[in-house]
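Lab meeting tomorrow. Look over both lines:
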Amino acid sequence: MRGSLSPPAAAWPAGGEVGDAGSQVSPAGTSKPQAQRHYGVTSPISLAPPKDIDCIHTQKLIEAMKPFGVFEDEEELNHRMVVLRKLNNLAKEWISELGQSKNLPPSAIANVGGKIFTFGSYRLGVHTKGADIDAVCVAPRHVERSDFFQSFFEKLKHQEEIKNLRAVEDAYVPVVKFEFDGIEIDLVFARLSMATISDNLDLGDDSRLKSLDIRCIRSLNGCRVTDQILRLVPNLENFRLALRAIKLWAKRRGIYSNMLGFLGGVSWAMLVARTCQLYPNALASTLVNKFFLVFSKW
């Protein structure tokens, strides 16, 4: 990565883990696919490579978005990663303590694990300044949902850096909301039917969903959908910059909200991802243009 808009490489492996927001776009926005292959259910509309003028327009697009707080600087991004690591450590500590209180053998307690996975705009790498982080606490089978909303909630309550803590247990996807050292976090919970949760757990494996409570399945959907989107776009940099532009456009026109009957973040991401599949070699400025061309005739 190059330039001030690119964050440092994520310190955690891929898959929506703690601190992994994906790499953001470089100012030049000229990244091209290394290998050509088809994505999606139909063939691309155009495989045309970008022209010099497309690079110029993409740079202008970046400059036009900067005043709207679309890009975070390295300091802000690093702060998010530090906060998520602290939260991950708190979750692991709580899961271990819970194992002790439920009389798990010491050998089992040492390996129970647990992990915080991120999803949504942060995981996609398109979050804006001051945006919240969507995350899921994945726990092994000895941890009940009631434990999450009781003992873990109490543990969070005693952390000096955590403010505005509240639980919404009757939501479609039950969630704990709080502010951790200035970063707003929406944390949901999923209990897997596994004795241990390893750091390299793959949530994309459908077998993980067997025999799960519907609320746990809903909690995992965010990570699974986000990671699937990232796997199905030809070029992540171009996808991310185009999505930032479309999200900004939608928010400025008051049509970015599934709560109000419009499309939400995941829906806009899917539409931009589809545009990327149809024009796999296009830069962000072209993708934005093609986005409106395609979906005005959808």
